[in-house]
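Bug: token stream looks shifted between consecutive jobs. Job 1:
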Amino acid sequence: MPERSREPAEPSFCYLTTTGRITGRPHRIEIWFALHDDTVYVLSGGRDRSDWVRNVMVSPDVVLEIGDRKRTSRARVVEPDTEEDTLARSLLVEKYQPHSGDDLTDWGARSLPVAIAWP
């Protein structure tokens, strides 16, 4: 598996703000993430039933905050059954499994990966 890019003292969570597909208002969530090269990956346990994923599918422009860094970017659902799909899932499980009291294998396999540009 490729090496994962990590910046010093990478936080455990990031904040993702999407635009509400119905209201047009900002919708901010705290979510686990993994940074690889110039892409941040997140997983939606609710898959495309999650409001924030539905928002991204309508309006991919998002605001992503990692620590004290805040950037406007674009998000997209990762194509299923691709190398990127496998990479996103493994990065998140690898990052959080050592600190979790639960087995994250099923979460990693069933969740929907979303990629966010982090140039």
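Job 2, same session, no restart:
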Amino acid sequence: MFDSLADRFEGIFHRLRGRGRLSDKDIDEVAREIRVALLEADVNVTVVKSFINRVKERARGAEVARSLSPAQQVIKIVHEELVTTLGGETGKLAMSSKPPTVVMLVGLQGSGKTTAAGKLARHLVADGRKPLLVAADLQRPAAVEQLRVLGERIQVPVFSEPTDPVKVARGALKEADRTGRNVVVLDTAGRLQIDDALMGELRRVRDKVGPHDTLLVVDAMTGQEAVNVAEAFDRAIGLDGVILTKIDGDARGGAALSVKEVVGKPILFAGTGEKLDDFEPFHPDRMASRILGMGDVLTLIEKAEAAFDEQEAAKAEKKLRKGQFTLEDFLDQMQQVRKMGSLQNLVGMMPGLPKEARQAEVDESQLGRIEAIIRSMTAEERRNPTIINGSRRLRIARGSGTTTQDVNGMLKQFKMVQQMMRSMSKGKMPRLPVPGP
């Protein structure tokens, strides 16, 4: 996520940290490098100019001159101005005091609008809401069926009828009242490009249902084009916010860094992967930290709290205190981690990791192999892996579709983890294995 921009900032600040007091020449040089980095990231020219002017003005002010570490103070200023550019405070949906709240999703075809509707509904359920998904995109034949499939997966009802989008939207409000659903999520029609017919249809739906939130779903990987699309939709129907999809594949970050300042509408949510739970509120401060390679501990903690069952965590802690940690516990913990989302994204949130570690390709299929190996064992073998001899290893390998070398490697990894857990249960710092030359 924003790897290219993060790399450039890391290089700029690495050189900056080696300096003491900063002259005006030093500040101009840093500003010039940041300007180039932002322009290469496809950030809007006007946004770049405003950003650089704010950074230079503050960097030449008293807050840097009086600082014991001027270089660190400049980094702090850049972080704070990135937060401002990204939107400042975290935006929220405008929930109506008289339900149902109506959220209308708009956007072009291919932006991921229907998938975003399903992800938003899942997020609302996790937040204690009772959403109703509405398939009002009658232009694309597969859109209604796609939404129904998503609804079944997240156990959220889907409403549609083969009439016209306005009647579907109006019928959805009655259905929400009848079934006690307090949020209506409208998936509207899109086109390959903006045209009068599309905007006319969206205005008719808007005027009939009066949405509390009109959100544009836009592909982050389209860069400046995403900003142009946002401006056009805002002029035509009026927007309340933006959902950026495919942000995990956006190496540059131009759309995220331009939308709020150019269009004046906050980014409310970001799609961070293909899975339905790869969707999160957009926090400008956390995103700025990710861009500057500082990690995102708060989002990491929230994902862990959502994924880990409290009772299971208490059981695991009890076993840990007794120095017990079996392959069944290993499998349970691994499954909990996988619930947190893409491992690549999780690694990117960890603070203090070197660039090479953050950008290293994470082989998630390895976890699948480990799970298959453990599931091919008997209950006794999981509890006491020391009984696994050569013939058992061969049977486990065949049952899991792996090799005996894979089984040996997994058992060796588990033994290291088990030893580490036992050390921790005795209050000792674990001795990590030292890699060979």
